[in-house]
C-alpha cells in the first residue's frame, strides 16, 4: 500500500487522510515558505492567526453554522467537556441537567454533571449492554438541557437523527462522528467533539455553542473552564494546541475538496453497508448492536465461536488489518471506519473475513 501503510481500524487516535499527512509533512519543516515549521510558529503570529481563522471559517462553511453560534477550540479532550458542560450550562432556575445514557461515555458525562447539579436520566439502554438506543424518553419539565452521545464508540450504536427534547437545549457529545454527515446546527444548543476520532490528532476539542446559552455561565468559574474565556479571546486566551488546530484545519479543507459533508455521508454509508451486509449474510459472524441502532463509524461484531476471536485478531494483524480488537470493556471485534478510512480497506477486510471463516468454519 501507499507509503507502506497498513489498514488502521483504531477507534482513536485514528486514521487520517494520506493527502492531509502529505501536506502536514511538508509544513512541519517549513510552513508556507515562512522558513519556520508549523509547530514553531507563535500563536500570536500572522501565520497562526490565518490558520485558526480559516479553520473556523471552513468549519462554519461545512456545517452552515450561523452567526448566533460560537466556535471554540479547547484542550482537555472530550472528557473535560463532561465537566464544562454542566458547570457552564446548568443554569439558574432551570430543572435538572438531563442525560440519555447509551454507553460508557454518556455514563461518564452524567457522573461529572452530578458534581455540579441535580441530574436526571431521560432514558438508558444499559439493561441490554447498550446494544440499542432508548426509544421513549422521559424529559423533565424545564430541563436545563438534554445531553446525548451521537455515536457510541465502544458499543457501536449511533443516532441517525437527533432525539426530541421537548424544547430543552440539546447538548451533544459528537466525539466519534462529528463531520461524518451534515447536521442541522440549529437543533443544537452545544456540540462538542474531541478531534482524535474523526477530525485530526489528539489535543484539541471543538465546541459549537449557541450564544444565548452563554448568559447562563456563572461568574465565578475557573478561567480555563469558562466558555466565555474562549469566546472573548477567540480561543487564544492562553496558548492553544497550535499543531492539532493546524491539522484539523487541513482536514476541513480536505473535506471541502472532496465534495463536502453530503458526499462524505454517502461514502460512510456505503462503507458501513459493505461490512454489515457481509456480517448479516454470514453464519460465522454476528453484529452486536440492534440493526436500527447501528453505527456507521464503529462496526462491532463477534465471531459466533468466541473462542476464535483472539486468533481472528492476531491473524488479521499479521495480514495488515490493525486495531480490530474491541474495547477492553466489551471484547469482540470493532472496525472503526471513520471519514478518512478508505473504502478499499473495508472491501479487503470483508475478503479477509470470508477467508478466515472458510479456514475455521
Ligand atoms: C473517545 C471519546 C470520548 C473521550 O475523549 P477524550 O478526548 O479522550 O477525553 C468521549 N466521548 C466519546 C463519544 C468518545 O468516543
Characterise the protein shown here:
With 361 residues, the chain is an alpha/beta fold. The protein contains 9 helices and 14 strands. It has helices at 18-29, 46-63, 77-89, 104-113, 227-232, 242-257, 260-281, 309-318, 343-360, and strands at 7-8, 69-74, 97-101, 119-124, 145-149, 151-152, 157-158, 170-173, 190-194, 205-210, 285-287, 298-303, 321-322, 333-336. It has a 7-stranded mixed sheet with strand order 2-10-9-8-5-3-4. A 3-stranded antiparallel sheet has the order 11-12-14, covered by helices on one side. A two-stranded parallel sheet has the order 1-13. It is globular. The two termini are 29 Å apart. The model has no long low-confidence stretch (mean pLDDT 97). The protein binds pyridoxal-5'-phosphate (PLP). Pyridoxal-5'-phosphate (PLP) is lined by residues 12, 77-79, 105, 149, 153, 173, 175-176, 194, 197. Pyridoxal-5'-phosphate binds next to helix 3.
**Architecture of the largest domain, according to CATH?**
3-Layer(aba) Sandwich
Head-to-tail CA distance between termini: 29 Å
- Give, in spatial order, the strands making up the sheet with the most strands: 2-10-9-8-5-3-4
Helix share bin: 25-40%
Instruction: Return the string of H and E elements.
Output: EHHEHEHEEEEEEEHHHEEHEEH
Largest beta-sheet details? 7 strands, mixed
Task: Give the CATH class of the largest domain.
Answer: Alpha Beta
How many individual β-strands?
Answer: 14
* Tally of separate domains: 2
User: Can you tell me the CATH superfamily of the largest domain?
Assistant: Type I PLP-dependent aspartate aminotransferase-like (Major domain)
Instruction: Please state the structural category.
Output: alpha/beta
Bound compounds, each kind once, are:
pyridoxal-5'-phosphate
Could you please say which CATH topology of the largest domain applies here?
Aspartate Aminotransferase, domain 2
In DSSP terms (H or I, runs of 4 or more residues), the helix count works out at 9
Beta-strand share of residues: 15-25%
Query: Residue-averaged pLDDT, rounded?
Result: 97
